[in-house]
Amino acid sequence: MNKIIACIDGSVVTSAICEAAAWSAKRLNKSILFLHTIERPQQHGADDLSGAIGLGARSNLLKEMAQLDEQRSKLALSHGKEMLAAAIERATSLGVSQIEQKQRHGDVIDAISELEDQARLLIVGRSGEGHEADGHKTKFKVVGSHIESLIRTVHTPVVIVPSTFKQPQNFMLAYDGRATADKAIDKIISGGLLKGLKCHLVMVKNHETAQAEKLAKAETRLKEQGFEVEASFLSGNIFDSLLSYQQQNNIDLLVMGAFAHSKIRQLFLGSNTIGMIERSISPLIVLR
């Protein structure tokens, strides 16, 4: 658990990912591993047409397709190397000296899973290449590459970065009084990444019992560990309440728990997490 693994793909978010990785590496005194995965694009059309043309033409077509695939692979490798070199240059300019790089073919989730035992933190962009977000109207399926699968698969904290990043001065923890939220507080206290930043501890009224007492207890825990805490109890729609609070208080970073183990709890907690990923304009840390 010694590396900040930052996934880059050449999208508009890449610069922000580099900046977030550099900030995290310096805060945690860890090295950066920039990861670029070359995923095989889906093929359309040629295979369907091959049965409708003559044998000789089909053989020539398949040969040309193989040559094109080889050219694409070489270009993708070359482009990836340039991208990784630029990321390393950017991180170095931001004061990070220990930097590694990896380029792999295949599925990005598989690549991350194979490296997760080395990871202290994962950093990904909210908008992947070819999936630039179209404001809040964009559906989750096209907000970033594989984010939902990633946060369901890994156990390492994930930082999801929008198109810009600035060094946070504060963070907001969306607290709901449940066990997963208390575990998030444990990780915030022990992790070190957020130490010294002002904490906005926010609870939106729900059906949990003794909410005020749970919020007060969480506030006390954080204060005892040296955090400056401002606790707030909100009411209304969870997304509107949290986003309104974020905007009114100039929140730099959001922190949320991910998915519970129960299928029923997973439905509700998962949808809240995804909703905030979709709609937040700030970086968001998802804790498992």
Structure description:
The chain has helices spanning 14-28, 46-49, 55-93, 108-115, 147-153, 179-191, 211-224, 238-248, 263-279; strands at 3-7, 31-38, 99-105, 119-125, 158-161, 170-174, 198-204, 229-234, 254-257, 284-287. By secondary structure, it is an alpha/beta fold. The protein has a ten-stranded mixed beta sheet with strand order 3-2-1-4-5-10-9-6-7-8, with helices on both faces. Helix 7 (211-224) links the parallel strand 7 (198-204) and strand 8 (229-234). Helix 1 crosses helix 3 (55-93).
Helix and strand topology:
Layout: E1 3-7, H1 14-28, E2 31-38, H2 46-49, H3 55-93, E3 99-105, H4 108-115, E4 119-125, H5 147-153, E5 158-161, E6 170-174, H6 179-191, E7 198-204, H7 211-224, E8 229-234, H8 238-248, E9 254-257, H9 263-279, E10 284-287
Parallel strand pairs: 1-2, 1-4, 2-3, 4-5, 6-7, 6-9, 7-8, 9-10
Antiparallel strand pairs: 5-10
Helix pairs in contact: 1-3
**CATH H level of the largest domain: which superfamily?**
HUPs
Structural class: alpha/beta
CATH-assigned fold name of the largest domain? Rossmann fold
Main sheet: strand order: 3-2-1-4-5-10-9-6-7-8
Q: Tell me the number of helical segments per DSSP (H or I, 4 or more residues long).
A: 9
CATH class wording of the largest domain: Alpha Beta
Mean pLDDT: 82
Q: Roughly how many Å apart are the termini?
A: 15 Å
Number of domains: 2
Unreliable stretches: 130-145, 261-269
In total, how many beta strands? 10
The CATH architecture assignment of the largest domain turns out to be 3-Layer(aba) Sandwich
Rounded radius of gyration (Å): 22 Å
